[in-house]
Each structure stands twice: as structure tokens, then as C-alpha cells.
Amino acid sequence: MSLNKPVVQVTRKLPETIETRMMELFETRLNIDDRAMTREELIAAVAKIDVLVPTVTDRIDAEVINAAGDRLKLIASFGTGIDHVDLNAARARGIVVTNTPGVLTEDTADMTMALILAVSRRLGEGERLVRSGEWHGWTPTSMLGLRLHGKRLGIIGMGRIGSALARRARGFGLSVHYHNRRPVHHELEAELDATYWESLDQMLARMDILSINCPHTPATYHLLSARRLRLIRKQAILINTARGETVDQAVLTQMLIAGELAGAGLDVYEHEPAVPPQLLKLENVVLLPHIGSATLEGRIDMGEKVIINIKTFIDGHSPPDRVVEGP
Ligand code: 8YV
After folding, report:
1. Atom of ligand 1 nearest to the CA of 82
2. Is 245 a catalytic residue?
3. Residues in CB range of 292: below 8 A, 6 or more apart
4. Domain 105-287, architecture per CATH
């Protein structure tokens, strides 16, 4: 593509510095009031633009992609997970797709560790108790939690975020285990002092804490199926800062209600922004509104990656964070 000022549609409000730079560089259509674009608005928009900058809240499926005009050549997504874009449909139309990997690793690992601490030490419950005015003072046996030091953490997906979590976990005295399609490089495995499990089933049955850190792909949809969830020890806790679709949420909810799992920390859900109402009533569950990467620094870094991807592409080069190659 060789366009001086491509028409770029941004679907959500981005940090101001990013929006301003995009206005300088491109013919940018911003979403100032930050209302999610409807399907009809998306379909109408893609017909007349060169670049689409969607986020996780936009479903860029085959219908949207097929409504694109010939000039739409790049989908530069704002975020790392790319499961909201139909990559096959983009490939078939010769549209390049990019994401923003690497810049939200530390923030998401921090939030995963925060959820591990919150669930094991009952932070949500304690905070609610104090705010309710019903706290009547210290007792030796009230609000007892799970000691982290010496426990086993099983990381499902040892990519960038999984490795960053492992580094933090070691500082808390957790022993690190992981399941991945392949073992990580032996130097990294030694640095993290991590134990590899080829069999997810076997790892699930032995851990005190499990954390999902893999992307959502067709292969990881309901990776934690009903059968696998039932392999987890009753005393264990489950943390998910990846994607809700990696877990059978209905079964997880039932297990938490029935006390077949000690607790859960969830930042993501299967049908966001819907959260199963039964979860809202449970004390042993900490629920967050998909804020794993929500730091100002992270959002600016993500925006800068989007700009670099668009700029390199319009200058005729291959953008650094290609997920789909294009023609
Ligand atoms: C982002 C995320 O905020 O990047 C991801 O994969 O899940 C989030 O942390 C979101 O995707 C922005 O579109």
C-alpha cells in the first residue's frame, strides 16, 4: 500500500496522546464518546476505509470482513488477543492483521498475581466485611486463608505472560509447574525452576493454584472442559486473566457453588460483559472487569504499537506484529 494519509477508523476511545498522533499521521476517524460501534456501523465503516483499528469489544467476523471495500488492507487491532477477528476471512480477502504483543505482559502478570493473592487471602471478602460495618474485631480463627509459600502453581500456557507470572510466583515461594504445547527453552525453564507437564490432565490433578495464560484459539476453546475441571483438587483455586472461552464457565460456576473448587479469580468471562449472576453471590470468587492490562502506560504502549504497524504498512513494509500476512 502506498497512501499518504490512509483513512483509519478507530472503534473505541484511545489515550489522548495516541489519538492526537494518529490525527497527525493519518486521516483518522475517532470515537470520541466511546460508545461501542454497532454491527451495522462497523459494516458501513469498513466499506470506506483503508485501515480498521478494532478492540476486543468488536466482533470482526466474516460478515464484517466481507463487507469491506477493496481499499481495506489492514486490520491493526488494539490488543494482543486476536480471537475477535476472523483470521481466515481476513486471509481470504488478502487483508493483513496485526496485534500489539509484548507491551501488556508485565501488567497482566501483575494482575494475575493480584488475583492469586486476592483469592487465597480472601481480600474481596475482607474488604466487603469492613465496608458493611459488620466487622466486630480480630479473632484467631476468622477469615483464615491459604498460605502461598510452599504451594504449587500450575501455569497453563507458558508464553510471555506465563513466564512473567512464573518470575513473580517464585518471589512468593510458590513452586512453578506448567503445561504448554512444547516445553520452553531449557535456559528459561532453569531460570524459572519450572516443571513441565506434557499432560495437562496430570498437572491439573496435582496443583494448589492454576492460572490460565494461553490465548483463546479453536484449539483452546473450553480447554478446561467439564471433564478437566473435575480433575482439579477440591482445595485448589483457579485464576483466569486470559479469555473466558478457555473454560467451561457454566460447569466452573456449578463447581464453585457446590464447593467442588475452593475459589476462583476471574478477569475474563465467556460472554463479556455478561457475568453469571450466581457468581456474584459467591464469597470465594474475586471478579474483575477485564482490566488485566489496564494501565495508562500499557494503553499508550499498545497505541504506539498500532501506530507503528499502520505506518510501516503504509510505507510499503511488512508491519512488525503481523498475525495474518496478507497477499
Ligand atoms: C486488552 C486483552 O485490553 O490484549 C488483550 O488480549 O485481553 C486486553 O488486555 C484488549 O484486548 C484491548 O482490545
Report:
1. 6
2. no
3. 104, 107, 108, 111, 112, 241, 267, 268
4. 3-Layer(aba) Sandwich (3.40)
User: Using a 6 Å CB cutoff, which residues line ligand 1?
Assistant: 55-56, 78-81, 104, 292-293
The CATH homologous superfamily for domain 7-103+296-324 is NAD(P)-binding Rossmann-like Domain (3.40.50.720)
The residue annotated as part of the active site, out of 122, 177, 243, 299, is 243
Q: Where in the chain are the domains?
A: 7-103+296-324, 105-287
Average pLDDT of the chain, as a whole number: 97
Judge contact between 182 and 157, C-beta under 8 A. no
Is 149 tagged catalytic?
no
Q: 141 alpha carbon to ligand 1 midpoint, in Å?
A: 40
Q: What is the DSSP letter of 184?
A: P
Q: What angle do CA 155, 156, 162 make, to 5 degrees?
A: 55
| Closest approach atom of ligand 1 to CA 242 | 7
The pTM of the whole model exceeds 0.85: yes
Q: Does residue 136 carry a catalytic annotation?
A: no
pLDDT, tens digit, 9 for 90 and up, residues 247-284? 999 999 999 999 999 999 999 999 999 999 999 999 99
